[in-house]
Structures are given as C-alpha cells and as structure tokens.
Amino acid sequence: CGAVEGKDYLRIEGRKTAIKKALEMARDGDAVVVAGRGHEPYQNFKGVKIELDDREVVRDGLREKVKARV
C-alpha cells in the first residue's frame, strides 16, 4: 500500500486517546469519523468491561478544542 506510519497515518493505542488526537488534529472543514462501536457506552477489552462512550469522548474533545481557541 505504501503508507508510512508517522507520515501518512498515526497508530495510537487507546480508543479515547485516538479520538481526542483526531479531534485535535482536525482543521476547519475536516470531518472526523468515529466508527466501529455504535451507541455502546462501554468497551470489552480482554474480558474486562470498560466504561467508554464515544459520544462523551467526542463532546469532551470538542469542548477542549473550543476552549483552546478562546
């Protein structure tokens, strides 16, 4: 495929961290797509149920982005 990690894409461990980084990197006119889990307010990781609501992560990330602009 020819894509180079660090240049063409980032590999970020942790869904919450990855979503926040995508929002941080987004510029005016960009779209950030958070896909794969739907409306579930948790994530199962290695048999452990972790509270994680993508919608809340996005809301928090957008609030932080707006505050940084002021």
Structure at a glance:
The protein has 70 residues and is an alpha+beta fold.
What does this structure look like?
This protein has 70 residues and is an alpha+beta fold. Helices cover 39% and strands 11% of the residues. Helix 1 packs parallel to helix 2 (54-69). The protein is globular, with a radius of gyration of 14 Å. The termini are far apart. The relative contact order is 0.17.
- Number of beta-strand segments: 2
Spatial order of the strands forming the largest sheet: 1-2
**Annotation field: number of helices:** 2
Instruction: Please tell me the overall pLDDT.
Output: 90
Strand content: 5-15%
Give the radius of gyration. 14 Å
Distance between the termini: 40 Å
- Secondary-structure content class: alpha+beta
Query: What order do the helices and strands follow?
Result: HEEH
List low-confidence stretches: none
